Amino acid sequence: MDHKTRPVISQHIIDEATEWAIMHGVAFRQADNTARHCPFSIAPMTMEREVFQHLRQVTPLVTKLIHNVSEDHDFLQSALGDVAKADPFFGRLYSLHQQAHGDIEHRLTAARKPLLLMRTDFMDDRQHGAKVIEFNGIAAGMAPFGQRATEFHAFMKEQWPAVYRDWLEDNLSTPAENQGLEQLAFGITQAAKQIAAVFTDKTLGTPETVQYKPTFLMVVQENEDNVYDQHLLEIALQKRGLRTVRRTFEQLSTQLSTGDNKRLMLEDIGAIDVVYLRAGYQYADYYSLQRHESICCQTLSQTRLFIEQHHVAVNATFSQQLTTSKTMQMLLTKMPAQEYARWGLNLEEAKQVKSVLADMKPVNPATINWFNTQTNKQAWVLKNQGEGGGHCVFGDDISEKLQQLLPHEYDAWALMQRLYPHEREVPTIAVRDGKQTQIDDLVSEIGLFSVYFDGAAVTEMDGYAGYLIRSKPASENEGGIHSGKGILDSLVLIN
């Protein structure tokens, strides 16, 4: 049967699929405290096994590189000074990093241990192969949704095999295992236990009288809707014996204190072992209506600095957030592979990392002239330092944006080779708000998760920790599940 004329899926199946999603926490919270299911595809995308294995192999190397660069504080300060002047929010992060690591005296106060929970996002370009879109080092969430999407497609295959096969590209494909939620929880638990083990019985209470549970603090945005993904991770951590608490920066500004031996203490809770920031990647996360500050967001960003001055596992540190920026991605892309030796990668490892980095160029008068007169404008995307969706400019709009920029703003932006991934050969059904839509030109982005603690891989898969697939129509620029036209997806492999 021609895929273009396939009958729509019965509403009964769509209803059961959306109920499965809600029941398994694959949802966003609404303003009235109800839940709306995440948009999802009815069947997975296909990738060649060899391509996926390469990404699995290279992602922990990327993470090792990012960790080692992020702990090279002198390099960060010298390499990122110009962009700090060009972008006010980046400048704030840079100055906070300087306060924590700028000189020998201050370095002694930054007692935090870096926990790198990272998602490296790729697109499999038709011509150039799989390339990095961006590094996500802060609020690198949705591993729980990634694993759930894989489980959902297994549910579809089991319950409605004919419908599942109808929308599958290749009936000989096999699902790619995805333990994103479990491996993230495993890695965080390892970090929490290592921090807890540092402190003596005197700090924790005697083992006979107090059963201490390592404690995980998630820093969250007030009234956000993407909470179920977060709660799924918390439940997985609770099953592993951790206590979990959630606080905003506003709450933490009055609730944190210092215990013995730089122990981080939280009011009414006690000692904290891991801090995971699901907030902090935009000015709004540090803004308080109640505070009248001469310097915007001073108090709440200083709260984050206070956390880093304690013996606690932190994701993301200021260093990690600076290192996973677009500017650092560009610097690493333009650097010869041999220079990666400075951060512990041998030449073979460096070449593997370089193989997945797409071409990038700084914004300066020469580049602007080249872009406007010599290149195919559709082959590039203009990016600023912002996290998440809505920070990219495409095609002919780039020239207009470049013309608007003032010279002192240039360093906040970079041009990147635009990636054109393979369109799915078979149409798919996207389900959004309980309604189905056929999409004929679906393309996908794959994010691979990794977990490193204090420089060592801490998952059961040598640092790798599962994946997230987000798909969108090729005609759409914004592919975020949360903030764009994206849908949740999973992955099957072909030989």
From TrEMBL:
Molecular function terms in GO for this entry? Answer: ATP binding; glutathione binding; glutathione synthase activity; metal ion binding
What pathway does the UniProt record associate with this protein?
Sulfur metabolism; glutathione biosynthesis; glutathione from L-cysteine and L-glutamate: step 2/2
Q: Cite the EC number.
A: 6.3.2.3
Q: Which cofactors does this gene product need? A: Mg(2+)
The UniProt keyword set, sorted, is: ATP-binding, Glutathione biosynthesis, Ligase, Magnesium, Metal-binding, Nucleotide-binding
Keyword check for Nucleotide-binding: yes
The Glutathione synthase substrate-binding domain covers which part of the protein? 215-322
Q: Which Gene3D superfamilies match?
A: 3.30.1490.50, 3.30.1490.80, ATP-grasp fold, B domain, Glutathione synthase, substrate-binding domain superfamily, eukaryotic, Glutathione Synthetase, Chain A, domain 3
Q: Which GO terms describe its cellular component?
A: cytosol
Asked whether the keyword Ligase is assigned, the reply is yes
The UniProt similarity line reads:
Belongs to the eukaryotic GSH synthase family.
Protein name per UniProt: glutathione synthase
Organism annotation: Paraglaciecola arctica BSs20135
Its gene is gshB
